[in-house]
Specification:
The structure is a homopentamer.
Chain A: H1 3-23, H2 32-49, H3 52-67, H4 73-90, H5 103-113, H6 118-166, H7 175-227, H8 231-239
Helix pairs in contact in A: 2-6, 2-7, 3-6, 4-7, 4-8, 5-6, 5-7, 6-7
């Protein structure tokens, strides 16, 4: 898991809880029915909009992209340069025995070793890239839906509390606490939306961008190997996709 | 019907009703005129924006996609692989006698058996895909419109209640209950928008994506059969469109 | 005019007025200055943003699409199939004497009879389609602008009322009625935006989609007639653009 | 300047001021510090987001498009038809002596007279069209930014006023007037956003669409002149871009 | 740094502080816990959504684009015209010894001197342009996220304060000050969002547009030099990308 994500969660919840405890008693902020209607209601709405298999699938995609290390295009470029040297020295069939960690790169090499035409390799890999993006978008949309729905459930909870309170105004002393409880669902909804689900949705989007960049490097790299470009040209081309300061200075590959 | 959808509706309405009953009397939350202005008014606005035939058509699309099982691309790929084996063994005309459940695949096969050129088959099927999407988008937009309009009608109802209340402030005891009733339309609008119509709109969008994926597999598959590719190549190509863990491991087809 | 539109307006206004009269006196909801600032102010803003000729033009487009019957692609396809039969039997010049109601189809036929190359016919008709869409978008944007502006003018009116009320708090009895009047502009703005202008904007969008579908059918149909396709092929192609249940079963045309 | 713009501003401000004066004293609505924080603060934010030269440039673009008459494609088409007749009668070099008001059309003719290949003329003119759009978008975005920022500055001003008021609740008589003043910034922000900046941003967008339509007519027209089409064909093509009722009936040009 | 940015910040904060001091005591507006929950909580959410390296990278991109002078396409065009004259007089290899400040132009010239085919030079440079845009979009999105999150954290802080206040209503005298403090987080969130982060996000977007325009000029310019166009043609082409009044009148280059 990204260490930043842990720090982010600890920090944000710490700050909210700290601000609660500075001004009063945290017990006043814990209300199980309010939590049920916001968290449970929001998840229930997700079940309405998406088949159960897809909800679980999307949650898994989200978990994976949070716990797994993101793609590293610079590393991938280095591997591709080494492979291109091997291919030029020993022929493209020599790539068959190379061990490659990246499953997508491995598939690309297998297609190249199998002797498929360049255009077909590129097309097959591109289809895989597109379908990866579509799966990821599904996960992002689920979390965006949760982010949008949580404040609405919070508002529904608060409205229920307000109507109940307004219909029973006989005891003035109970108005304050009743309204405090009514506001709790709005608070829960805001925390669930803006601290929990929103940042995850954004993180998924960024991870998809990272993986897209990495897969694009693989597609271009395999294409260049099959074309028989030398490593210097490949390096020039692929590194143009990295930020200037992320371009490795490995002299030996060039 | 997706079992998740039923669970989702039962759960969300159960939680809202439960939270009402915990804090007071559910009778205070039932007000027929308020329900009329929100539900009736929202549907009336839908009649303004869309011809009656299209409203009913869109509702039917929505009902279908909720009650019918979604498309299953993995199943479709399996069928296509079997058909491609038949076509290679017995010639493309042998496909005429195959019974195929998927109406879109059946149409594609009929065009292939009729001997239309590849490009024309692809074009005709693609037109059908595009027009399916346009029809579905229409249904989605109707439910998004309902989702956007319901809170507005709720707000209009609340404003009407507030103005009535403010114009008659003589009896202080009536202020609370009057305001409680005024807030009910906002509550109804929020439930109608965020628990009923919003998730349906989202579900329709996902179903369209599923059906698009399935139809794309059919278009590519028929194209590959006509082209005379062998099953292994077709499998490689089509399965690239599935999530890695959804790819069937049927050895016999390859 | 679509009967649904009339029903929609009668129903929505009836419900709002009904809910007003159930809770109080409708006289309390009529305030000419409030109506002036909301309706007049919103229209004044439209004059700022668009030249007067274009405002009137857009209103006319809106009126036309509301009062005229929408396009009927199924009917158009039937006409095209008949024309294609004539063209195959008697030659394309025979189309010169055919009476065709649809002005766009008539123009396409005229270009075909004039012997223009296929690509040029398609291009000229497509330019017309694109420029129809641009004109319609203009009308849609005007009504979306009105929809967005009306609540803002309502809010401005309410703020004016609140400031006036707050600056003169000496008479407590006047607070309620003053605030009731202040809220009226918000109510007017909401009704104007969500019941009047919003649904019209949506309806215009749908009508544009209908007309686009119809014109696309014409463009494809004229193209197929010039190409000399037989009616069966044309029917297959054009009907792919209709919903499955909207496809006519006219055996004689095929 | 469009007369509609003047009417729009006079009308909208007149209605707002009128509604103020009907309900109270206009003096209560004038507060220089409130105006400073809203108007000044909004403009200050514009300086943060855009270099000073570009702010001034965008304001100038806005001023030009408001004060200058918009493009008139029908007029441009008429000129092009006359030029095409001259070119066919006397050769394309005869266009060198033609006086043309539209600077963009003049540039296109100059390139044609210089004997550049058709594709290059089209490319150069298209670059100019694209870069015109980019400059205009910049101006539109500035006014949209002002529109989005003004209500925020209004809210900031109101929050400042509320905090000040709440921290000093000793004198109940001062609460009303203090809150009235606090609300003024919200009112100013709303007027600045929805009456002043919003309509200008929209108007700029429409003007860009007009100018794009006009420049497209010029690009197509110059292309057709160089290609040597006769006036009837050019007229047919170019007028397809106009609304049916805007197509001139000048018989002599055809 | 753009002088306008400094002026903008000084002016906007000066106006806000001034309006605070006019109406009360600035001490009432300083509350460290409120600042912690808004600023700290917002930054913590950014850590959740983005890996730490990328947060820092994006901040650096933001800082660079604020402190560095923006790209100047007019200046770049002048340089390119001089280089094209050199290339025509002394051959393209003579460009090897030219000192060029713009790193992107220098790379383009190096590729040209290396004798790469035109299409490949254009492709490599375009990849670099696209990947620059993707990096910048990342920075923009971070600041947009901060802008969207800050008001949410402000609302969460205010809700916490309100619940605390409502749960302890015994002392009426404390209600005003408690609510004043509760509102401070909303105020902080609005200032952080609309005065600090929003304008930076917008400025980043504009800087990206500037840099894109400049890099496009370089790509077209290098392409034209390799193609061997003379300076007059190049000037015509490149200056079409500038605003009419930004086109330099340097007679000697033409």
């Amino acid at each position: 898991m990204d260490i930043a994500t842990i720090i982010g969660y600890v920090l944000s919840f710490g700050l909210i809880i700290g601000s609660i405890m500075m001004g009063g008693d945290i017990v006043a902020f814990i209300d199980v029915p309010s939590a049920l209607i916001v968290v449970g209601g929001t998840i229930a709405c997700a079940f309405i909009m998406e088949s159960m298999g897809n909800v679980l699938g999307a949650v898994k995609v989200a978990k994976n992209t949070l716990t797994q290390k993101g793609a590293n295009p610079a590393e991938t470029i280095k591997t591709i340069l080494e492979l291109s040297n091997t291919a030029r020295r020993e022929g493209i069939l020599a790539l068959e025995n190379q061990k490659v960690d990246d499953a997508f790169l491995a598939k690309g090499l297998r297609l190249a070793v199998d002797g498929l035409p360049r255009e077909e390799i590129r097309e097959t890999l591109t289809v895989e890239l597109v379908s990866m993006k579509q799966r990821h978008v599904r996960g992002q949309k689920l979390f965006k839906f949760l982010k949008d729905t949580a404040p609405s459930m919070g508002m529904i909870g608060t409205l229920v509390g307000l109507v109940n309170m307004l219909a029973n105004l006989e005891d003035p002393a109970s108005i304050g606490p009743a309204m405090a409880v009514a506001l709790l669902t709005t608070l829960y909804g805001a925390v669930m939306a803006f601290v929990v689900c929103g940042p995850i949705a954004e993180k998924l989007e960024r991870r998809t961008a990272d993986e897209t960049a990495n897969m694009t490097v693989v597609i271009e790299g395999v294409d260049a190997i099959v074309k028989g470009h030398n490593a210097a040209v490949i390096k020039d081309r692929l590194q143009a996709r990295l930020a200037p300061n992320a371009r490795p200075q490995d002299q030996e590959a060039a």
